[in-house]
Amino acid sequence: MTYPQNLKYTKDHEWAKIEGNQITVGITDHAQNALGDIVFVELPKMGRELKVGETFGVVESIKAVSDLYSPVSGKVVAINEAIVSEPSLLNREPHTTAWLIKLELTDPASTSALMESSNILPSSLP
Hints:
Mean pLDDT: 92
Distance between the termini: 15 Å
Number of helices: 3
Radius of gyration: 13 Å
Helix content: 10-25%
């Protein structure tokens, strides 16, 4: 499994793409692979304020239901409606077009716990 170097990661298998004050959030290839065929995604409403580590949605597969956790503190400014309509996109493009939400960063310090791709070792993943 590859971890793109332009993304940051959480131990809960979310990724964050930091572009100034906007953070794009998705799940890792490892997460989609562990879940199997994804059949349902629930995302938050626009404008919702999230704290780092707060649950913001759910991904359901044929194997399990998993919570989604915010990698940073921010306000939801975009939702990927394509994922809601076609959840299986997460299985095909987890690090690119299958992003989940975009946040406007409200606490820049909340990015400090994110990991670089080079720091992800098999032992750091459940």
